């Protein structure tokens, strides 16, 4: 997992909103989670077509850079910064709508010697938050001093905290080797939080997804480790990060879909659950998985399938679409992953012609 130091989704120190040629209606539809819905298809069929865009406003009130995506609910634009702050801005003018931003304490800094690698600092809120429009709560994960990830929740109306931050520290979890950058997902009464490693692939890390009760009623964590659920053939696996910024996708039955990045097996090494699409139950029980036949080559070349997470597409969002940073593609109905379809344009080369199903 090596990405450019020119980080995805970053907007420096300010938020700009672009007005489409169709005018204010461009912000009419809510966008409460990354790529608009848990299908992660980014498809707003109510949006008007446009030919040109222009800057509508720019806000310079933010206290740090933005790594994730802004969200829109009603006339509010919600943004989170690497300084562990959440802001609500007026979608028409960019003016703050809360009396003060929600702030969750000093963020971690990459200069801390406990980090072995990385390319983001400060390390506050990186993953795109998610919003429950029914309850009016905004969820985010803050990385706070002296080194704890916390699920935080604030009210959409005024930015006040909805419940005490919940620490995310499952057994064996090392926050200095596990980075949270994937967008959050809200479903099944849970907030789903995915973790991978840091830029540079240092130390021992794994692809991890954690489910936390969205009402804040429990600090208990449900955990899925991509390399600890009986599918991997490698007995000492490392890697397989869930690092793509898109976040887990969720189908109509509440099942969760994620994709892993590179593991460290290559050549003739045993399968290590890298370069894999996983299907999980709402309680994060392993259900199924798929990996291309040349997963080891992808590992060796650092051509991560998991640079993005799956999108659920089609008229009823019943097709899993997965691509990566080098041509790997899966397009299949999840109940019959043996019937994988590949585009020749995208599936040529190392990994396209002979996809295989794992599990």
Secondary structure layout:
Layout lengths: L14 E6 L32 E7 L11 E3 L2 E5 L4 E6 L11 E2 L26 E3 L4 E8 L3 E8 L10 E3 L16 E3 L2 E6 L12 E6 L8 E4 L23 E2 L5 E4 L17 E4 L5 E7 L2 H7 L9 E3 L5 E5 L5 E4 L11 H4 L7 E4 L1
Antiparallel strand pairs: 1-2, 3-4, 4-5, 5-6, 7-8, 8-9, 9-10, 11-12, 12-13, 13-14, 15-16, 16-17, 17-18, 18-22, 19-20, 20-21
Walk me through what this model shows.
With 359 residues, the protein is mainly beta. Helix content is 3%, strand content 29%.
What labels would you give this structure?
Lipocalin, about 350 residues, disordered N terminus, mainly beta, about 30% strand, 2 domains, 4-stranded antiparallel beta sheet, disordered C terminus
Looking at the structure, the CATH topology of the largest domain is Lipocalin
Shape: globular
- Major sheet details: 5 strands, antiparallel
Can you tell me the CATH class of the largest domain?
Mainly Beta
Structural class: mainly beta
Rg calc: 20 Å
Count of individual helical segments: 2
Distance between the termini: 24 Å
Tell me the series of helices and strands, N- to C-terminal: EEEEEEEEEEEEEEEEEEHEEEHE
Could you tell me the number of beta strands? 22
Offer a concise description of the structure.
With 359 residues, the protein is mainly β.
